[in-house]
Amino acid sequence: MTASIDSFGALGLSEPLLAALADVGYESPSAIQAACIPPLLAGHDLLGEAQTGTGKTAAFALPALQRLDLALRDPQVLVLTPTRELAIQVAEAFQRYARKLPGFQVLPVYGGQGMVAQLRQLQRGAHVVVGTPGRVMDHINRKTLRLDTLQTLVLDEADEMLRMGFVDDVDWILEHTPAERQVVLFSATMAEPIRRIARRHMRKPQEIRIQARTATVAATVQKYCQVAAPHKLDALTRVLETEESLDAALIFVRTKTATVEIADKLEARGYAVAALSGDLTQVLRERVIDQLKQGRLDLIVATDVAARGLDVPRISHVINYDVPYDTEAYVHRIGRTGRAGRSGTAILFVTPREMRLLGTIERATRQKIEPMALPSRAAVADRRVAQFREQVEQVITGEDLAFFREVVRSLVSREDANLEEIAAALAFLAQRERPLQLPPAKGPDIADAARSMRPAPARSPSRAPAAKLAEGGALQRYRIDVGRQHQASPKDIVGAIANETGLSGRNIGRIDLFDDYSTVELPAQLPAEILELLRRTRVRQRPLGLRPLTPAEAEAAVKAKPAGRAKRAPAGKPGKAGARKPAAKKAGRRGGG
Ligand code: AMP
Q: How far is the CA of 55 from the centre of ligand 1 (A)?
């Protein structure tokens, strides 16, 4: 994107949407947004190659919102997502952009969520429905989701949906939509199965792909750090504390709101920091930059727009707190350091879901971005001690201490303490603001959590999903739709579950076989992707349809006499459904982000 469009207004978005965007602090459209919004507003089908982190959600949500007839309370937009987690995120994004559209309703529907509540909400009416293919199919079949008024169907992360085996479901849903609807497909890759869907169901789709132009980057050391979103601020402060030769740093975030929020938090932690966004007048902007040049400020938290053209040789570090939308933005950002012949370091925070974008940037810049471990608490403490020592040395060599020596001498005589004790007390006083000993962590440390997080999305679905699960966490009873009459044996069931998900035997508890169903103990709160996987996994040719037992079912199952029982209490201990304490809680295994 070179002919970059600088404002959402220029894309033809309506006032209420522009007002909402201003509210959430978006300054300018990302490349994918600039390219997709006009054709989508015009009603075209669209095939977009875009990954998480490029701003694709807003790219399809904004035009969809603009085309809604709010007076009509029937579903006009249906978004299919591979996972429940993404369904919720997308629904939240719609809500955020629709905050100035009175009466707007969006409803996420996904497996594992109470059917009754969903039905009630569907009856009340929703303009936009976001869901996983399985549950959406259920609702279409039950006629609780009617698609006759559907205008737009969005397939989000289509490649993921196919990878998870939803291809038939997606086809089926597309066949049940009106002929005149708009189809929008976003996918990180445009592999053949995706093209097949496009050929079968789309009409002259516009193809949008943001070309990652190859670019050379200055002699900047580039590193990335995998961090879950909620840990970013903590990660940032650790990096700021432990990076060698940090002079001044430019911290990039996505929104104006975030510039202020993060600057405030850093200020509260004692940093000389300012926020820089497009909201600042030219005069104020220049004042901030001057202060940075003169060393009165060390950190600036900025958006891409605000940092354009910024040239301050002291900037030793660029920290990409939020990933940039595209390679161009990345190259531009890191070009703010390593200026005037100095060396610079660029550190990129990536959440597990954004790992793909990392690969794209590496390919486009033809440079490897090295992984970096998040500094541990011990590293932070060591660094503080080292700095303290340095300060002490500097004072000894650089200051006139005659008066203070006198004070210490009087302390020694009056307190009847030796010099070491006095010095220790003074060190204690000096470190109060910035303790040299960090208080013990509550729960697993974020550095460990980051280490155990799943890397880039695995190519093969097998075994990967379970990587997130803590071994030996609490178990819960689930229901599966195969039982004795289907000739299913506990061995079949365990085998299928273990093979599909990579769950180990320790994570699969007791199995009770009934005539036409069975119950199985698996970790409580299984991640959405595993639930989806196990819904579809087959035993004796029947899909398991796995779902948590409702309390009533749990009670009924206790009363009913199992047709056969298999005890597979993990680690040899009897398992009471959902009531076991975690046996061996491993630090930070539930990364999430
Ligand atoms: P997505 O690629 O849709 O998952 O979006 C990634 C993140 O970027 C989300 O947190 C959005 O809220 C944010 N975002 C999307 N578009 C913009 C924009 N134009 N300006 C600032 N942030 C944005």
A: 4
E runs forming strands in 171-277 = 182-187, 206-209, 220-226, 248-252, 273-276
| pTM (2 d.p.) | 0.64
Is residue 254 in contact with ligand 1, taking CB distance under 6 Å? Answer: yes
State whether the beta carbon of 257 lies less than 6 angstroms from ligand 1: no
Question: How far is residue 51's CA from residue 560's CA, in Å, rounded to a whole number?
Answer: 49
Nearest to 52 by CA among 359, 303, 277: 359
Give the pLDDT score at 438: 80
Residue nearest to atom 1 of ligand 1 (CA): 55
Q: 63: Cβ below 6 Å to ligand 1? A: no
Within a 10 A sphere around the Cβ of 92, how many other Cβ atoms?
A: 14
- Give the model's pLDDT for residue 579: 34
Structural domains in the chain plus CATH codes: 8-209 (3.40.50.300), 220-376 (3.40.50.300), 378-430 (no CATH), 462-585 (3.30.70.330)
Residue 491: what pLDDT? 78
Q: Could you tell me if the CB of 57 is within 6 A of ligand 1?
A: yes
- Rounded-to-integer distance, Cα 356 and Cα 455, Å: 10
Q: Which residues of the chain have pLDDT under 70?
A: 1-5, 211-219, 449-472, 499-500, 502, 505, 561-593
